[in-house]
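Same chain as my last thread, 155 residues:
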Amino acid sequence: MKQILSIMVMLLLTVAGAMAKGDKLPQYDITGAGSGTEGTVLVKVYVYTKNAKDADLKRCAVHGIVFRGCSGNNSGARQPAMAKPTAEADNAAFCNEFFASDGQCQNFASVVAGSYDRVKTPKGYKCGAILQVDKTSLRKELEKAGVVRSLSSGF
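reply #2:
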């Protein structure tokens, strides 16, 4: 009976650990990749993992636009971060739900077809793609949640 109970506990801890690990954002780099249609931005995202899924790329693209901003592309245009540096910690409950593996952030980004890239690095692989992020809808959603200040709130 003790063995069965200990096996069940170990199995439960393994499953819980795998679920928690799945919601953590992987390490990533983000840069500008050109200009999209009005209200969108194109970004090149590299995720440091052996095989990145579209969901990981989308999560990192949206997270990068909101909290990091991205360096400019060939034209030199830089995309500043939407939120204050402390916004992620201040709104941790919302961010954990929004940036979960199957979170709502998936709705604001799409992978540009034929843009996948995989590069071998000394520490493993980095997988990337160009993504189009709907900045206008994303900002409206984050304003409703109180993560980002409205552009008209300063006047």
